């Protein structure tokens, strides 16, 4: 299985990894996240303004200690609502390492992820983020990461949409995956999901 783009080797795991993502309102609506591992330790958090003023079109993914790992920024103008990802805290003139855009195929609900330093590497994001049911797939249609509703282990109750699971396949960079979650959330917040079909893959239990 192809591992994919590596933003930070610290978050590339040898075994399948299950993270819990908490969507918060600490900054602006849609922009705050804290990500925990299975032991309840903070793995990632999101800063929407950071050391310098940020606009609504830029988000920063940090580690638990506040170190900037990845910046995602909306490209303007953009026909297909394109976002770009930069290693660390983006600086003027820095080149992005990946881009995300809506699929231009009529009737298709999804997004295309291009790895810019490797033109042959591409990912597809399909599903309904509003329902917390998405897949990130490589060019071979292998699922590399999945977003799904969180179920409380003690009560077997499905939690609210502000808490969801992010499952990573072995070798797929968690920082890259979480950067894509930020972009999906922003596009969904711009009324993307309501124009898509409720499901784009068969309903199954993951």
From TrEMBL:
Gene3D superfamilies: LURP1-related. It holds the Pfam family LOR. It comes from the Eukaryota. Belongs to the LOR family. This is Uncharacterized protein. It comes from Hibiscus trionum (Flower of an hour).
